[in-house]
Amino acid sequence: MIQDFSATAECAAALDARDALAGYKQQFLFPQHNGENSIYFCGNSLGLQPKSVRAAIDVELNSWQNLGVNGYMKGDNPWLFYADYCKPALVKLVGAAGVHEVTVMNALTVNLHLMLLSFYRPTASRYKIMLEAGAFPSDQYAVETQVLMHQLQEQDAIIEIAPRNGEKLLRTEDIIAAINEHGHSLALTIFSGMNYYTGQLFDMAAITKVAHEAGALAGFDLAHVAGNVPVKLHDWNVDFAVWCSYKYLNSGPGAVGGAFVHEKHTNTQTPRLGGWWGNDEKTRFKMEKGFIPKPDASGWNMSTSQVFNTVCLKASLEIFEQAGIHHLRQKSILLTQWLEFLLQKITNIGFEIITPTNPEERGAQLSLYFKERGRDIFNAMSDNGIIVDYREPGVIRVAPAPLYCSFSDVFKFYSILKEI
Ligand SMILES: *Cc1c(COP(=O)(O)O)cnc(C)c1O
């Protein structure tokens, strides 16, 4: 396919004409620049608002208005079961065996901590926790503070895997070698599914397999994966995963987060912190002593469903259900290849694409590394109606999300960049 590309507006139009998902763009609201839609390549940070969200919020406002507390059992979407409405779609996005392996609750870092409490259970001999160097800061802080909570030494207990000297990406073989090296003392690997800075998608199946062979567990932070790249958490035997819903899942700032717990761990024996929403509904309202977690991933829920935090996810997932994550992924691979093809034609500004070239090792995002003047180039893009983001040191992240970005948008981005 890539050899058919030519750097022309006609080629972009032809690609759009062949795109079966092109119509989904109409379902989203775009920030405006000089009276026109911005070029929005920032869905890896905050996805755009689906037009359907406003009405969906209105439904719950009306239930609240008309039913008051009876909204928990009545109305269009009884709130008691609100988390459940999102589960069938999430099962497909993360490759769970069924709705029993997924839940929605809280937000990402909170869920990461809850999962670490259950699955990072250091012993005297097996206490190390491994992640990639340069992980998202919140994940670094979570791991650091968990280690301190267990009264372990950071330098001893945290193993960070960095790229080789002069390289920007992690090699799977180096991750595997490190897991084997620390195998006897390793309790858990907690890599991100995709690194936020480089856009590198890790080989989660391989990491999980080797971690298990070493006697450790494997969890993942899927913040940059959920809604971007379909994964197979159940089949890969991943122990747990967490993600947020405001990036590729388009559920708005502060949206409710998600979690996957493999069915082998969802039994009531797995230690955790409990709250009434993780308890069986049958006994939840008896107000009796004795926490009995639901025997599924929602056994980690604690608090009453955050309806207004979840309604946007519910509305957004309906679009994913219609479009299909595998169709979206197909489009995304082509769209990002098109972006890469055009970027390679740019000679007026110096940068390096640090994201892997292989589509199997990346999602929608390309990270452009500028040795110098990255911030200036970023500002010039903003002045021209391009919304991307800048991450120190020196990287502009460009992520055309396939639900609402077209091949012509990518061409427009290229045309503007060429003139900067
Ligand atoms: C976006 C992101 C976060 C943010 O966590 P919140 O708790 O939702 O603020 C954490 N980790 C990773 C890897 C992210 O990409």
UniProtKB/TrEMBL annotation:
Pathway: Cofactor biosynthesis; NAD(+) biosynthesis; quinolinate from L-kynurenine: step 2/3; Amino-acid degradation; L-kynurenine degradation; L-alanine and anthranilate from L-kynurenine: step 1/1. Keywords: Hydrolase, Pyridine nucleotide biosynthesis, Pyridoxal phosphate. Its EC number is 3.7.1.3. Pyridoxal 5'-phosphate binds at residues 108-109, 136-139, 221, 224, 246, 276, 304. It catalyses: 3-hydroxy-L-kynurenine + H2O = 3-hydroxyanthranilate + L-alanine + H(+); L-kynurenine + H2O = anthranilate + L-alanine + H(+). The modification N6-(pyridoxal phosphate)lysine is found at residue 247. GO terms for molecular function: kynureninase activity. Transmembrane segments: none annotated. It is an enzyme of class 3 (hydrolase). Pfam families: KYNU_C (PF22580). PANTHER family: KYNURENINASE. Belongs to the kynureninase family. Catalyzes the cleavage of L-kynurenine (L-Kyn) and L-3-hydroxykynurenine (L-3OHKyn) into anthranilic acid (AA) and 3-hydroxyanthranilic acid (3-OHAA), respectively. This is Kynureninase. It comes from Polluticaenibacter yanchengensis.
